[in-house]
Amino acid sequence: MALDERERQELLGCLREHGEEALSEKDFRDVLWQLLEDVPGFEMPDDEMLEKLLGEMWERYLLMGME
Question: Does residue 8 register a pLDDT over 60?
Fold first, then answer.
């Protein structure tokens, strides 16, 4: 149960389109979690794996805001 680079970029693109303003970390996690619920294999993810993924995706999201 992992996302490849293309899938990660697609999710970040969806999050970026979510709104004009930057999301707080809490809102980011909530929106990403909602998106992941529709991804096969993420219906009931391992907590440790999910935390790692959310942390990695949050860092990427922050870097996108700096571009």
Answer: yes
Rounded Cα–Cα distance for residues 21 and 19 (Å) = 5
Q: 16: which 2 tokens?
A: 């970026």
Round to whole Å and give the CA distance between 54 and 33.
Answer: 8
For residue 22, the model assigns a pLDDT of 80
How many other C-beta atoms are found inside a 10 Å radius of the C-beta of residue 47?
A: 7
- Helix, strand or coil for residue 32? helix
How many separate domains does the chain show? Answer: 1
Looking at residue 60, what is its pLDDT? 92
Relative orientation angle of helices 47-65 and 25-36, to the nearest 10 degrees:
120
pTM (2 d.p.): 0.80
51: domain range? Answer: 5-65
